[in-house]
Amino acid sequence: MNIQSAEVKKVINCCIPVANVKESAEWYVKHLGCQYEGELTDDHTFLRLSSGPDLDLIRVDEVIQLRQNGWVIPSINFHCDDAKVLHESLKVNGIQVEEIVDHSWVGLSFEMYDLNGNKIIVWQANI
Asked: 102 lies in which domain range?
């Protein structure tokens, strides 16, 4: 047995719980620039980003928010090239967004919520 082949290499998809797959997929395509990847069913669909793992939108009976000491834990973190432009675009389109936070040398971030109430953090890293 080759020990090297026994390790995990990368994330291939991230599961996002949603109440309605079609409406949620349309939201992610319209507001975050995702593209359809594969078949859209009532139970799930895959969405592709410009890089990284696919998003697997999965219909659940109830979307819940996980919390730690009252803080809502994000479902996923995204990277973008221009947090200010994306933030303004989302805000203009009525998406719930929090203020941009400047993390000094690390970069900018802001919190947002999808139409299911999933918390998303968007980062623009200072690279």
From this structure: 74-127
